[in-house]
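Standup notes, structure subgroup. Blocker cleared on the N-(iminomethyl)-L-glutamic acid input:
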Amino acid sequence: MKLLLENIRELVQVEDNPVLFRAGAEMSKVGTIKNAFLIIQDELIDDFGTMDQLKDVYVDDDFLIEIDCSNRIVYPSYCDSHTHLVYPGPREQEFVDKIKGLSYEEIARRGGGILNSAKLLHETSEEELYNSAMKRVKEIIKMGTGAVEIKSGYGLNTKDEIKMLRVIQRIKETAPICVRSTFLGAHSIPFEYRNNVSAYVDLIINEMIPTVASEELADFIDVFCDKGFFSVVDTERILMAGIKYGLRPKIHANELGNTGGVQAGVKYNALSVDHLEFVGEEEIEALKGSETMPTVLPGAAFFLNMKLSPVREMINSGLPVALASDFNPGSSPSGNMNFISSLGCIKYNMLPEEVINATTLNSAYAMGISDRLGSIAKGKMANLFITSDMPGIEYLPYMFGSDLIETVILNGDVQSF
Ligand code: NIG
Ligand code: FE
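Run returned:
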């Protein structure tokens, strides 16, 4: 099937010679075409150019669907490279505890936080988990996300971790969005192991990882390497075991302290290190020249009132940066990448162009899919969105509370809501 988008005010993040990510000063460059057309053939981007060039490729009656995009802007879908969107229920009571003065770590120490979700997940059926997660998937699709990474990590025992990963697998098979899955057995320390963390690490290594790998349930392995959670020594043991089974690391690092998580991630060639509130010169030096994408989660920092990751320093030092939502019930109960884009500009002083690269191409790289998603390039997946009337690319992050996405196309299909 052929689909034609015509009279596009601006076609954004166009690449003639696609790259896998953009770093440093390159992040402020975004290729765009004004008064453009775009042709989609089946699920792929087939051609694009200016409207005057369209007559050269247009054959009458060739197109089954034509969409007039006058005054509208077309973007590649957001790629959200860090979420925990399979979870058994919200934790709004902890939200109130936080307002009253408790910190995220204090709530976790009292058996709240991730352990609270794990207890509830144990009592929730696979079917219920799937249904509630699919509602969230539909919500983020409507808000412009076309690829998403989803983590396990509210199971914390072999059976429940597998239950979560099966739910993610089912979402992969049934949702129109591209899904990557991550095994995060090391998300928190179960209550019964609190005085014997290495026994829990043994369980992850000897039982969970081999089972996850034999059922081919995960693309990546993650560890919450931070103060009060898993140490660098624990993290390295888990990453080594995962790598043996072909699971590339993507880790939670440096959210609560300068713990060495970033360096451990780089040492084991992690695809990304995520959070990064506590990053200084040493971490930046470690990341330079590596294949690891520094990924910042503005929603969590906003929701928990945390100190901000030094994004400007990282970009000015020549590093790439990706932004993701961290959609989860405890620290970022939103998967709205439009809001993440606004936070990127407002809180982290990123230019709108830098934010576009961070939420599309670089975040696609952080899921290992930037060769087929994350930009408008011939042969890439036709996952994109069309805005409502809009003057230019600055407008989307500027209008931080508005819903400006009018049409979503995934795998070449116009989505209906
Ligand atoms: O990325 N930092 C660790 N994990 C999640 C929080 C998960 C939760 O609180 O349920 C995060 O912020
Ligand atoms: Fe997270």
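Discussed briefly. Residues 2-76+375-414 form a domain with the Urease, subunit C; domain 1 fold (CATH 2.30.40.10).
Next: hand off to the docking folks.
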